[in-house]
Write a structure and sequence with these properties.
Blueprint lengths: L31 H13 L18 E10 L5 E12 L5 E2 L2 E4 L4 H17 L6 E7 L7 H15 L8 E2 L8 H15 L20 H20 L7 E5 L5 H10 L3 E7 L2 E4 L6 H11 L9 E3 L11 E4 L18 E3 L8 H9 L3 E3 L1 H4 L2 H15 L5 H26 L3 H20 L4
Parallel strand pairs: 3-6, 4-5, 7-8, 7-11, 11-12, 12-13
Antiparallel strand pairs: 1-2, 2-5, 8-9, 9-10
Helix pairs in contact: 1-2, 1-12, 2-12, 3-4, 5-6, 5-10, 5-11, 10-11, 11-12
Bound molecules: glutamic acid.
Glutamic acid binds next to helix 10.
Length: 442
């Protein structure tokens, strides 16, 4: 898989000091995630009318916390990790967004991811602001005990700014239900009362919601079908290529396969596989559950990783990390439509190339909003201690995604802009309208 172009850049963090001017030698492919976000905001300002007065609000996080996480390793030594929790905006409600554990996590990245959560939550109109957290650690190098200690100390350190009505973390890259259970327990222990609503994406028996695990993939599938209808792409005969075969890519692939599509290529951290007649997605999911990756799946041809971008397909679903579709590979992509299951997988330069090539991009800020939408349902269920059926959850999720996508599609048509810009227009107007109504304090 491509190395993240952001691994060593902190280009955006200068904006914390009050400027987002980038050195001219940085081209658009190397803006860094926060720089990319700022450019996306700049593109929508002309469409905000009088609300543009408040646009600066979007260009700086409300609050950013950096924490030191010391833990005792199993060998008796002490290791320190750096963790972050950034609340980008809380005009529309408490902060909301996941926590990722990854060796390349930077403050710039978490700032951008928190801002994309503000946009995403406003795009689907759930009553949340945007937040995100992360720890710079490769969880694969930790034992289960070390992972628990890192999680608990991080939760305790960010405990001063999170809470069921302040900021609600959730799973993201390399975090899961088990980690959410530890986070919920640590916060509850410190508070002296069980607070299920402090995180979402919990195990079902601890106040989790049915359908949450599959929600992001289901949302990807739902918006994919909505867009396909509008551009005359036939889902039952579509060929799909997926990058990332976890919670998002794996579920999306399964739903497309159930709808009759052929999943022809899958790439993950272990390798790239291809089968022109369509992979057996259920068998592949079992293989991945058993072996940890797609590598070695018998009923497929192995490709070298870079060949993934040339695969003949109709729909490409990047569902791994940021910065995967760049100026270096955007001209090779054969798909008619790209559905961004990951956050930030396409650089702005690549976006422009794809637009010129008339490849439709369904942007992350709407395409992967299914996860946080069901997180909202989970939070509501925890507050009322009344739990819904899976059918109710899926039906409500599909309705929200279809309505939100329909409204965004219309804005794109009206203003002749990309779906990314249209989503930003809808979301930024909602956020800034709330901002204006609340007014400045003091
Ligand atoms: N991490 C997911 C996202 O990026 C879900 C966040 C949430 O449920 O709060 O949208």
């Amino acid at each position: 898989m491509n190395p993240s172009p952001y691994a060593s850049t902190h280009a955006g963090s200068s904006s914390l000091a009050g400027t987002h001017t980038l050195p001219s030698y940085l081209n658009a492919d190397h803006l860094g995630p926060w720089g990319i976000y700022l450019q996306q905001v700049d593109r929508v300002i002309p469409y905000l009318g009088s609300l543009a007065r408040w646009a600066e609000t979007l260009k700086r996080p409300k609050r950013a916390l950096i924490v030191d996480i010391p833990i005792q390793l199993d060998n008796g030594t002490v290791a320190h990790f750096e963790g972050y929790r950034v609340q980008h905006n809380t005009s529309r409600g408490p902060g909301k967004g996941g926590v990722r554990f990854h060796q390349d996590v930077t403050l710039s990245e978490v700032m951008a991811l928190s801002a994309w959560m503000s946009i995403k939550n406003a795009a689907v109109n759930v009553p949340f602001g945007g937040a995100k957290g992360g720890i710079r650690v490769d969880p694969k190098t930790l034992s289960i005990g070390e992972l628990e200690r890192v999680t608990r100390r991080y939760t305790s350190e960010i405990g001063i700014i999170i809470g069921p009505s302040k900021d609600i973390p959730a799973p993201d890259v390399n975090t899961n239900e088990k980690i959410m259970a530890w986070m919920m327990d640590t916060y509850s222990m410190n508070e002296g009362a069980t607070a299920t609503g402090v995180v979402t994406g919990k195990p079902i028996d601890l106040g989790g919601s049915l359908g949450r695990r599959e929600a992001t993939g289901r949302g990807v599938f739902t918006v994919g079908c909505e867009a396909a209808k509008r551009i005359g792409l036939d889902i039952p005969s579509a060929r799909i290529a997926v990058q990332g075969f976890g919670n998002v890519g794996g579920i999306a692939a399964k739903l497309f396969a159930q709808a009759g599509s052929r999943v022809v290529a899958v790439q993950d951290h272990s390798g790239t596989i291809y089968q022109e007649s369509g992979l057996d997605v259920s068998a592949l999911l079992n293989h991945v559950a058993r072996t940890g990756g797609v590598h070695g799946f018998a009923a497929a041809q192995a490709l070298i990783d870079d060949q993934f971008w040339d695969v003949p397909c109709d729909i490409l679903i990047p569902a791994a990390l940021e910065g995967q579709i760049t100026a270096a590979n955007a001209h090779r992509i054969q798909a008619k439509m790209i559905i961004e299951g990951a956050n930030g997988p396409t650089t702005p330069q690549a976006d422009d190339i794809l637009e010129d090539r008339h490849i439709l991009v369904l942007p992350d800020v709407i395409a992967n909003a299914g996860g946080v939408t069901v997180s909202y349902f989970e939070w509501v269920q925890d507050f009322s201690s009344f739990f819904w059926t899976e059918d109710e959850i899926n039906a409500r999720l599909v309705r929200i995604m279809q309505d939100a996508f329909g409204a965004i599609w219309q804005v794109a048509q009206d203003h002749h802009v990309s779906l990314r810009t249209a989503t930003f227009i809808v979301a930024c107007k909602r956020i800034l309208h709330s901002r204006e109504m609340r007014g400045l304090y003091p």
